[in-house]
Amino acid sequence: MKRKLEEKIEALRKEMEVTALDLGLGHPNVYELSQALDQLHNEWHREYAKELDKSVERIYPIRPHSSTIREVPIRTVV
Question: 2, 16, 20, 70: which could join 33 in a potential S-S bond, CB 3.0 to 4.6 Å?
């Protein structure tokens, strides 16, 4: 089962790479393939990460970032 899932991940990754080269990174098809690949990675991690690291059960809190993001105008040189 593990090998089959890894083969699916690799096949989908290659498909996404070819699609991105043909259509561009911002194309909706590439985005959909990326989401599908994320799902397969998550599935793999849920099933097999415990084999790699028995401490996978640790939970790390994520603290909100204190800084704010602001837009900075881009200066063009004429």
Answer: 16
Question: Helices 2-23 and 28-52: crossing angle, nearest 10°?
Answer: 150
Q: 26-38 pLDDT, tens per residue? A: 999 999 999 999 9
Structure tokens that stand for 20 in this block = 């991105």
> What span, in angstroms and rounded, lies between the C-alpha atoms of 32 and 68?
30
68 CB neighbour count, 10 Å cutoff:
5
Prediction pTM value: 0.62
C-alpha–C-alpha distance, residues 59 and 55, integer Å: 10
**How many angstroms separate the Cα of 1 from the Cα of each of 5, 8, 12, 13, 53?**
6, 11, 17, 18, 19
pLDDT at residue number 60: 61
